[in-house]
Design a protein that fits this description.
Helix content is 43%, strand content 17%. α1 packs across α4, α2 packs across α3 and α4 crosses α5. Among the domains are: 61 residues, Winged helix-like DNA-binding domain superfamily/Winged helix DNA-binding domain (Arc Repressor Mutant, subunit A); 75 residues, SH3 type barrels (Roll). It is built from 8 helices and 8 strands; from the N terminus they run αααββαααββαβββαβ. A hairpin with a 2-residue loop joins β6 and β7. By secondary structure, the chain is of the alpha+beta class.
Length: 218
């Protein structure tokens, strides 16, 4: 359990670092939903592990070793999600919690075998990049659906939120990765989008949903 907790903190630091120039103890505590003293205690342990560098009142920085360790945890998670969807037939809304448990397994050969069976995928079922065995990502830069205007034609490449509630809603609307949207209107009041795709016509998508759909132009 102690190792799993350390890995969860490490992963949280990694993801915070993607969206923040400086990862603070306060931000990490909010992300992990724990008190500042609890974070300080864990930060000391992660420093001993050689995963982070930290000085009081300064941002938390991942070391090269810590960045690699975090990337490999993410690799296990995303490979598991892809395996569950592609090989075992799970829905993309069902796999996150299972992968959260699997990512802490130390049997690296299991994940290498998953990778081989899947044909070495570069993304998971939600469109997020899967790191290779060296912790390297092949990232692509996408825009949010909410950043486009009426008349645009774009294709869904990833979701920025893998919560079951969002994915279930997308299932109900028959929206999957690869769906091509034609935007017919953006409401001035609340930025709700009216879109058409496939056989669906004039479907409303809230601004909150559109912010979480990552797309590129056709």
């Amino acid at each position: 359990m102690a190792t799993q907790t350390k890995e969860n903190y490490l992963k949280a630091i990694y993801f915070l670092n993607l969206t923040n120039e400086a990862v603070t103890v306060t931000a990490l505590g909010k992300e992990m939903n724990v008190s500042k003293p609890t974070v300080n205690n864990m930060v000391k342990k992660l420093t001993v592990n050689g995963w982070i560098e930290y000085e009081k009142y300064k941002p938390i920085k991942l070391t090269k070793l810590g960045g690699l360790a975090a990337a490999l945890i993410i690799r296990k998670h995303r490979l598991t999600e892809m395996f569950l969807v592609q090989i075992m037939g799970f829905g993309w809304e069902e796999v996150h919690n299972i992968a959260e448990e699997m990512e802490h397994l130390k049997t690296n050969g299991l994940f290498d075998r998953m990778d081989e069976i899947l044909g070495y995928p570069s993304t998971d079922p939600h469109g997020s990049p899967i790191p290779d065995k060296n912790g390297e990502f092949k990232r692509k830069s996408y825009n949010t659906l909410s950043s486009f205007s009426a008349g645009s034609e774009i294709i869904l490449r990833a979701v920025g939120d893998s919560s079951a509630s969002l994915l279930t809603m997308l299932n109900e609307k028959n929206i999957t990765l690869g769906t091509t949207f034609n935007i017919s209107k953006v409401e001035d009041f609340d930025k709700t989008m009216i879109v058409s795709y496939g056989e669906a016509r004039n479907i409303s998508l809230s601004h909150e949903v559109c912010k979480r759909l990552l797309v590129e132009t056709v």
